Amino acid sequence: MNDVPVKKKKISMLLQIAILFAIGAVMIGVLLSNEVKNVSYDLFMLKQKENAESSAEDLAGYLESFPAHDWLIRYWYDHYDELDIEYDAPYSADTVTAGKYSLLMERNPGFIPEYAEIKDVEKLTEEDRKLYAEIEYSRLISRIDQIKKTQNISYVFGVVTEKPYDNQKVLFISAGPGEIRGSEKGQVYPIGTELIVTEERQNAVLNAISGEPQFSYNEDEKYFDYYYPFCSIDSHDVLIVISMYVPKVEMPFYDSMAKLSVMTIEFMALLAAICLAMIIMVILLPLKDVQDNISLFKNTKDSSTVVENLSKISSHNEIAELSSDFASMVVELNAYMIRNEETAVREEHNKTELALANRIQTAMLPNVFPSYPDRTDFDIYASMTPAREVGGDFYDFFLVDDEHLCLVIADVSGKGVPAALYMMATKILLSQMIKTDRSAAQILNDANASICSKNPEEMFVTVWLGILDLTTGIMTCANAGHEYPMLKKAGGQFELVKDKHGLVIGAIEGAVYQDYELRLDPGASVFVYTDGLAEASSSDHQMFGTDRILENLNTDPDRTPEMILQDMKQAVSSFTQSTELFDDLTMMCITYHGKV
Question: In total, how many domains does the chain have?
Fold first, then answer.
């Protein structure tokens, strides 16, 4: 008894499309709004950081405009508990500071505080030095209060700290109208107040002093602080800090983003409604006619009536062709399915074989790192990324004996399976020829002779080979048409070693190769690669090039070989973006540590 298919309940295509359009409009609107918000927020925060940096540089420039600013900072720090400071008073004739200024001028005619140098200050009496320090401190407070007001900053202050930077002492701090100065929480701290420093702020201070101004959120994330290194006093460091109240800064941004999000969703909904109406008129109604005639043919097998009806469908797009081609489609579809199934089987078989070849090729290369976990006299790392499923590049390294390490990197002409087979044969041949009593050049001479004797396809391979004496650090090398190696001496940077090239192996029988030496002191590194690295291309057909290789290596030349290769891969990926690799990408790096 045959099972009768159960008819599923139909849902109108119009309803389905309307639901999908509604969901899509909302999702796109939300995603678009979120993306715009993220990009805008990053730009907004960048502007805030630029504002903070500009304010810090403004204040630093103001302080440096005083020829005796080093003396002032040191005096403020050493005598903060003795100073009679007039905080937040406008710098005018009726202030206490103005009276001090008049007194100082009366006692010391010709002394101009704004232009006084340290030698001028040291000529003053101790009492007048104190007056001078109090006057300039009050002027500084007026200036930072002005910066706070004009730049919409929560606080501008300076701190003095020293290693390990786990505490800070307030040197100066701005205050707004109505803000009370005192040591209680919520008040504006006076000079000399000690601040407890969180680990995050401690790290931010350390990084800032190391040469890069840093941002740090406080413990409740209500403020973020910009640390700007200003100067050093003996063993103490002085930093300018720009502090911003996060909710106040972000509120206008989120208000505008909320309005933009609503407008975006409304626009997407309107666009979806217009598109839906066009789809109904242009697609759904003609498709409904096609569907009705398909059902008629299925029920009646009356082909002449169906063909006549389909020819009357009013449509000026692909639906008209669909209706005219429907009669022959069923027969062609069956044949196509058979062909498609056979093709799929062949493709799957090919993929399986290529995947197996890739695993075999990968297994032939050293791919377990660290390869010599018990050795402390060197650190080595290598990688090979084929442009296709299998590649023609290869690398190898192994201990010839306890005191000699052999390194090989090579690039076979061509790509794909032929290059991979040639690569495997060359690798095996080189491995068999390497012995302790052979030089690098002799190995290449013998390999060239062997390959030239059996090379009907006239393929060739570039090879760089080095044998490192682990007791002396001397590496004996030879180059058969390969890329120049790059050497970093201990404590230095990577540089290109323009060694003497021989011909590629397999080109001419009887070619002669020459040895040369690289001396590796402990801490030195050697980086070798195939031309797939230098010739990696971007979407606008620019090559990665040797200069970019050196630039990436020297961003931090003391990285481990593994980190160097990982960073280089990331740099190539960022450079090429979506562009596929044209050639295999192979790299190897070794750092010599010497006997420990």
Answer: 1
